[in-house]
Amino acid sequence: MSVAINRRLFLETAALGLLAACGDNKGPSVAQTEPTAPASVDPSTLPKLSIVTWQTPQEDKEAIREEARRLTTEALNALGGMSRFISRGDVVFIKPNIGWDRRPEQAANTNPDVVATLVKLCYEAGARKVRISDLTCMDEQRTFARSGIQEAAKAEGAEVFFLDRRKFKEMNLGGKTLPTWPIYTEFVECDKRINVPIAKTHNHALLTLSIKNLMGMMGDPRNQLHQNLGPALADVAAFLKTDLIVLDAIRILKRNGPTGGDPKDVERKDTIVAGVDPVAIDAFGATLFDLKPEDLSTVTESEKRGVGTKDYESLKPIRLSIS
After folding, report:
1. Are 8 and 318 in contact (CB under 8 A)?
2. Residue 218 and residue 64: Cα distance in Å, rounded?
3. Is the backbone peptide bond immediately before 28 cis, with ω within 30 degrees of 0?
4. pLDDT at 40 over 80
5. Which DSSP string do the residues of 70-108 spell out, in sequence order?
6. Above 80 in pLDDT, residue 147?
7. CA-CA distances (angstroms) from residue 38 to 7, 14, 314?
8. Domain range holding 191?
9. Distance between CA 306 and CA 323 in Å, rounded?
10. Given 16, 110, 121, 202, which residue has the most CB atoms within 10 angstroms?
11. CA-to-CA distance for 212 and 216, rounded, in angstroms?
């Protein structure tokens, strides 16, 4: 898609987003499977995928932070703005990857400035509250602090909290592999959900992307899923539909995921991918690691379950390069 067409689409969809933000009605119930759009607009005509890349990566820490903020904002603008997804008065649950006691430069957790920018955009769209959490694999106090997400998101007004293990409740997923499983109730019951994974390797799933990131809202015993991970997570993805997915590929962890730790395992891709189809986003994410979508069981099995399409090009993604 040409830059000229990209700009025209941006102007059209941004205008639609402003119309949505002016309404006084609260967003749809948790059962809704598509983001909010003005009643006069066919949601199928709105962009479903944006891929935004930084042209001239820099090494200065503050410059990388600015890059993260710009990439995230432009990826949302290309889809029509955050007001397409968030309605006035919404309680929003943002689910990053905050699993590991690692610094942002080690690419084991979602970039904190991507998360903070999403918080800012949600409040600008009229959200009443933005909540952020994840089920950590290491000590939660150290992990939340060292990831940088806690400080950055709180600075934008988010409530960053540790998950209460008592709030995982057995739920009917309706799946073939997982008929039921404990799921965090507040993630299900909020008005809107945003899934914000980082792209990285994983010793069981091959890659962690948006579908795998949903495991942070699942209760134990999660380790039992590793032998049949693709079909199991396809059931979870079909149940835990999210309104928006933002894939952080500014830094990706190319080796020794999901924990990482060695800077030599990190590679800069300087890319943010945003959209509404988790299968398409994960299919594109595979290409960042020189893999095919078919290499990921989470992608192939979720497509079979009707969660989305691995043919991400069929969504006519908006591609932008900024600096």
Report:
1. no
2. 32
3. no
4. no
5. HHHHHHHHHHT-GGGT--TT-EEEEEE---SS--GGGTS
6. yes
7. 21, 12, 24
8. 3-22+46-322
9. 37
10. 110
11. 8
Question: pTM (2 decimals)?
Answer: 0.87
- The DSSP code for 191 is S
Does residue 97 lie within any of the structural domains? yes
Q: At what angle do helices 278-287 and 297-304 cross, to 10 degrees?
A: 150
d(CA 1, CA 129): 36
Is 208 exposed, middle or buried, given 0-12, 13-18 or 19+ CB atoms closer than 10 A? buried
CA atoms of 298 and 320, how far apart (whole Å): 27
Res 41: pLDDT? 64
pLDDT of amino acid 54? 96
11: Cβ contacts below 8 Å, ≥ 6 apart: none
CA distance 200 to 256: 9
Higher pLDDT, 110 or 22: 110
Q: Which residue has the tokens 């009917």?
A: 172
What is the DSSP pairing of strand 49-54 with strand 266-275? antiparallel
User: Is position 41 within any domain?
Assistant: no
| Category of 211 on φ-ψ map: left (φ > 0), alpha (ψ -120 to 50) or beta | alpha
User: Which helix (H) or strand (E) segment is 194 a member of?
Assistant: strand 192-196
Do the domain assignments include residue 34?
no
Q: What is the CATH number of the domain that holds 223?
A: 3.40.50
| pLDDT higher than 50, residue 1 | no
129-132 vs 49-54, strand pairing mode: unpaired
Structural domain count of the chain: 1
**Distance, CA of 15 to CA of 130 (rounded, Å):** 24
Is residue 13 domain-resident?
yes
